[in-house]
Each structure stands twice: as C-alpha cells, then as structure tokens.
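Notes from the pairing session

We agreed to fold both candidates in a single pass and log them together. This is the raw record for the first candidate, unedited. Please don't reformat it; downstream parsing expects exactly this layout.

Candidate A
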Amino acid sequence: MSEPTNEPGQRTGRRWNQGLRGVLWVCGVALVIHVIPLFLPRNMPEQELAIARATDNVEGRLQFLVPLKHNDKATAADLRMAAELLREGAPAEAHDLAVEAERRDPNALETQLLLARICDRERMARCVEQSLGRAQKLAPADPRPELLRADLSEQKGDVEAATAALSRAFSRTPGDPLVGVRYGRLLSRMGRPEDALKVFTSLEGKMPAARLLVEQGLVLTKEGRSREAVGLLQQAVQKDPKLVEGHYQLGLAWFQAGNADAAEEALRQADRLDVSDTRALGTLCTLQVKAGRLEGARQTRTDLERRFPQRMDAIREQCRLP
C-alpha cells in the first residue's frame, strides 16, 4: 500500500491556512488590546481625556468630559483641557468645566484666559471683560491678557481696540520681538507709519537685522515710499541672501517704484530659494499682467502649471490672462 504524498497544492494550502490563522491571531490580539480599556473602570481623568482626544465628534466627547466636573481626581489643568476640547462645539459645557477649574485653582491665569475665549464664543461680552480683568489682576506684568484682547478685537474688525491692547502688551514686555512686530504691523495698518518705525527701531538687537529691515521696508512700501523701501530691502538681502521674504518684498517694492525688470529678478530669486511655494511666481505673473507683459505672464503661468499640476485651478485664478 503506497503512502500518501504531499502534493504541492496541499503544502500551499496548509501554508495559506497557517498564514491566515496567524493574521487572525494578530488581529484578535490587537482588538483585545484596544477594547479592554473600554471595559475597565475609568476613574482617572487622564483616561477620559485620552479617549475624548481620540473622538472626532463633540457628542462623543461630551460623555467622557462632562463627568470630570464631579471627579475629585480631576485637577484644574485637567478641567481646562476638557473645556478646550469642547470650546468650539459645546461652549456651554466648556464654560461649566472652566468655572469648576477656577473653583479648584482660583489663582490660575490660564483659566481666566480660557474663560475669556469661551465667553467670546458664547457672545457674552461682559463675561469676556470680567475674565480678562481677573487675568490682569492675577498677573499685572503678563502680556497675555492684552494679547488675547487684541486677538478678539481684531477678529471683530476693531483694529483700533486691537492696537490699543497691543500697545499695553508691548509696554509690559518692551523689546519682545513677537509682540513688537505684531504691534508695528498693526500701527502701519492704522496709517501710523512713523509710530510703526519707532517700534521697529526699538527692536534693534532683539531680532535678526535682515528681518527687521524687511519689516521697516514693508511700512515704507505701504506708504508709497518705494525708493526708500527698496534701499532697506536691498540691505536686508545683502545681510541674509537666503531670506526668501526679503527678496519677495524687494520685488514688490521694485515694481511699485516702476522697475519691472528688477522686480522680476527679485521675485525669481525668491522662487529659486523656495521652489515649493507658488507665491513668488504667482505674484510675478500677476504683476506681468498689470504691466502689460502678457507673453511673459503666459510663460510664467505655464511654468507654474508644469511644476504644480495639482494646483492648476488656483494658479489660473491667481493669474488671469486677458
């Protein structure tokens, strides 16, 4: 009697079955690892916060975060995090959590700032002012309450109030480049170029010289003082030849000064320094159309479309040819 033979097909079938069992086993272990935590008692705020962060919709987050208000283990920081996760979609519940955070830690500046943002989301102007007022009392030298006031004012289109808030913030942190640059730009936007230039002058030595020259050049360009702006921006790119923004703004200033050739060269240099961005060539194409250089504009747009085929519609919208 002959013994059974292991045909190739049988061996392949066994290996396939073994492989399938292995895959199913791995998938089963992974499923258990992910499911077990859902059945464990969850009395730690960190667990609720972690699950809520992994939940996309607000309704799903509510069931994990709202109970933290009554969880004795939840710290003020935990409650602030929960409120932040609900701020956009469920501001009323976020407000309750932030108030509880305030009760547990009345001296936390971060809680007052969060309350101000939540109240703004709920369109409760008085609540916003009260929260910002408490924040200022808690930290008189901290610029963050005024910076937040500037944010909220600017969002509402109240540039004057935003500028006043930034003035107070800058007085609390004189020489802070982040606050100073924002304040200077807003002063320029308000039509106060000399005040803006004074602010930027006060930042000398506090930020890279080339970037400061670009900010000063922007003020002059906005005021139509294009020749002066060109001089400052040329200094900027000499100090930092790889500063993309310097070459870009120099191109705009040159065009405003009436030198289209120099403008093109500066914008092309900005493009060479950052070939992943469409802004420089897109702007060049627009300026070429304005100058009546239609053949050059067609070539520039064609170059952009070849380099960024996935952005073709946006490119054609930015640079419309007659």
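Candidate B (folded immediately after A)
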Amino acid sequence: MGLLDILLGRTKAVAPDLDQLFGLPSAAVTLEAATGFVPTGRGAVCFATVEGAAFEQTHREVQALLDADADRDGVPVRLTRDSYGYSWLVSERSPDRLPDLVNDLHAVNSSMEVNGFGPQLLCSLAGFRNPAEDRALALVYLYKRGTFYPFAPLPGAGQRRDNALELRVKATLGNDLRLEEDLGRWFPVWGAPGL
C-alpha cells in the first residue's frame, strides 16, 4: 500500500480466512449464554450465479461430497436462487451439530475457491433462533473481508432489522469472532435461506 492509497483513504483488502468459520461453535456457546439464541442447524453459502460447465461440475462435486455424509439424517444439500439473482447452497443439520454445519460451509467455500470461483463467493451464514422470543438471527461471514457480523430481522415488521440486538451481539462476540468494524458493510440478507 502506497502513500497515495493512504491519502485517498484506500485500504488493503483483507485476505479471506476460511478458518474463521471454525470459531462459530465457541461463539454459539457465548451467544446462548448471553442472549438465549441457539443454533438452528441451518446454514448457507451465497455466491454470484455463474453459468458454464466448469461451475456446474464444481457444484455437482460439492453437492455429492456433502450429500455423501452418512450423518446428514437424509436431508440433502440444496441449491436455491434468491430474488436478487444470487445462488445459495443450503445445508441443514441437527441443531446440536453446529460443528458439522461449519464443516459443510467450509467445504463449500474451499471447493469453490480451489476451483477458481473465489471471486464469486459473497458470504456464508449460520442461523440462530431465540425460542423464548421466537426471534431469528444470523451470523454472517463476509468472504472477501474475512469478518463476521450479526443480522437480526425484526419479526413481522417487513424489511426492518433490530439494530440494538445486532450491536449487543457484536459486543458479546468480540472475543470469539473477527467482527466487521465497518457497520456500513453489515448488509441485510432478507429472506436468506438458512436464516
């Protein structure tokens, strides 16, 4: 990074660190103790939709790898597209098997990265729910930033989010996960599968 970059306020891009995903199980323990949110067992990887034989081959390999896991309880990994045109590879596990879900998310990201589709990766998320309040929360991993942020949609309020809860979760998980400091990058993931 040069002097001109510093003067213009440009920052060096953070390299993706997929191993940050392995911090989710310990963060889940902290999150449950502080807020009552527990894992749902659902998670997803979001990427820009890619056309072509190479991508289809990578997708089939990833899906076959994850579906071959005998511990999946018969729930296959599924590919969906959202209303914005992004693709989501969704994995479901038993809520008490968050480490297995994290392995799935890591495997999808790693496979896409190794096969040259890293630039298309956007984010991964793990879903949480507070059963007492019937509230949803996602911990979202930004692939290109190597950081997490919480996303808490307000129930029954359309596309509104609970900023106070998101900031409380940020303060709670500061020692467990590398959290995104720039709140402008806490993008809403409305209707994300896995949430």
